[in-house]
């Protein structure tokens, strides 16, 4: 595309040359210039920022890779946009929306309006604008930063509308098998300051469904999906929603598929800890007992020479369900739990595990007589 025939967005023009940035760099004042232009300014003996006229306490220049990437994508995507067609959005409009969301000076109302424009565009199936363009222009990263990047600050009530709207846009821009989102979900759920936000995440059916799907199908990012689920289920307000969303099914399927393989990172302890967090709910206990492989999977985890943490978790979980469900006791015995427990007691397991194992043996034997 011939950039001379295009209207260059203000964001993409060097304040000195007024031409399209070729090598954007940023000064300590936060102002961005084309490298060749600012170097000429410095070589003329100037030690100030051309726009703000502030004296520079640090003359170093930092490459603005984000802006460079945005310009590159603008040049690549330009031919897709027709300014005369009201059914499409121009790159100028996209740049303006992005600037509004990034600006620290814009009002919350203006940012809400910008998000609403994004939501409408992403919801319009008849719109000729390709959603991929939003991803290529960095909107997903920006929205994630706006939602999760301020975890240290208390989220005020008036900002919740903004967060919910941004989340709806994020969900429309995914598939959710995105490492960045899983990392952000885990980070957000780990922060006490974002508890209200985490309840929104944990009760989002689509988000929970996708995380469970990642765990069941054991994608490359399963570790991050497990960490995200673990963080979310640490909040009591999320646990029922996670159980309804199939969290137990995902965890059991994942653990039962591990077998004895050690070719991949062992995430079984993390998966078992998630089950323990959920077992405070009657619905979770029922989901475990009613799962075709639920009890069998736990029994197989009882005697794990190399995974003492998993052994202890398995014994504790069996104690919970066998104490409440006769069917669980019968199925555990049929699956060979008595032999597993005897082997465990003869091993070098910890005192807590041995104590729990004896309790489980006593419970099962009392039901057999």
TrEMBL record:
Catalysed reaction equations from the record: S-ubiquitinyl-[E2 ubiquitin-conjugating enzyme]-L-cysteine + [acceptor protein]-L-lysine = [E2 ubiquitin-conjugating enzyme]-L-cysteine + N(6)-ubiquitinyl-[acceptor protein]-L-lysine
Domain of life: Eukaryota
Gene Ontology molecular function terms on file: ubiquitin protein ligase activity
Record-annotated U-box domain positions: 7-81
GO process terms (BP): protein ubiquitination
InterPro entries documented for this protein: ARM-like, ARM-type_fold, ARM_PUB, PUB22/23/24-like, RING-Ubox_PUB, Ubox_domain, Znf_RING/FYVE/PHD
Enzyme Commission (EC) number: 2.3.2.27
Enzyme class, spelled out: transferase
Functional pathway: Protein modification; protein ubiquitination
UniProt-listed SMART domains: Ubox
Residue ranges of coiled coil: 98-125
Keywords: Coiled coil, Transferase, Ubl conjugation pathway
Function: Functions as an E3 ubiquitin ligase.
Protein name (record): U-box domain-containing protein
Source organism of this protein record: Lupinus luteus (European yellow lupine)
């Amino acid at each position: 595309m011939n950039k001379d025939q295009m209207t260059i967005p203000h964001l993409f023009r060097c304040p000195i040359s007024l031409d399209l940035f070729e090598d954007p760099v940023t000064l300590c004042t936060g102002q961005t210039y084309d490298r060749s232009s600012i170097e000429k300014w410095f070589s003329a003996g100037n030690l100030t920022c051309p726009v703000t006229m502030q004296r520079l306490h640090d003359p170093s220049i930092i490459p603005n890779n984000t802006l460079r990437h945005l310009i590159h994508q603008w040049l690549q995507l330009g031919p897709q946009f027709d300014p005369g067609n009201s059914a499409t959005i121009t790159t100028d409009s996209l740049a303006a929306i992005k600037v509004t969301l990034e600006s620290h000076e814009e009002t919350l109302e203006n940012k809400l309006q910008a998000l609403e424009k994004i939501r409408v565009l992403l919801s319009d199936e008849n719109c000729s604008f390709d959603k991929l363009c939003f991803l290529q222009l960095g909107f997903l990263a920006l929205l994630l930063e706006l939602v999760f990047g301020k975890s240290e600050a208390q989220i005020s009530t008036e900002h919740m509308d903004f967060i919910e709207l941004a989340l709806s846009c994020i969900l429309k821009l995914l598939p959710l098998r995105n490492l960045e989102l899983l990392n952000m979900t885990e980070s957000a759920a780990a922060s006490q300051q974002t508890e209200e936000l985490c309840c929104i995440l944990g009760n989002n059916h689509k988000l929970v469904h996708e995380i469970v799907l990642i765990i069941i199908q054991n994608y490359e990012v399963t570790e991050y999906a497990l960490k995200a689920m673990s963080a979310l289920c640490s909040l009591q307000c999320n646990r029922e929603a996670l159980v309804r969303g199939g969290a137990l099914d995902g965890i059991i399927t994942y653990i039962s598929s591990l077998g004895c393989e050690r070719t991949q990172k062992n995430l079984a302890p993390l998966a078992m800890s998630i089950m323990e967090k959920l077992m405070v709910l009657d619905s979770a206990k029922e989901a475990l007992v009613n799962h075709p492989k639920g009890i069998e999977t736990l029994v197989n985890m009882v005697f794990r020479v190399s995974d003492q943490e998993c052994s202890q978790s398995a014994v504790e979980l069996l104690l919970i369900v066998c104490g409440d469900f006769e069917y669980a006791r019968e199925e555990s015995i049929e699956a060979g739990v008595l032999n597993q427990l005897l082997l465990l007691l003869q091993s070098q397991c910890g005192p807590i595990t041995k104590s729990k194992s004896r309790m489980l043996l006593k419970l099962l034997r009392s039901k057999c007589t």
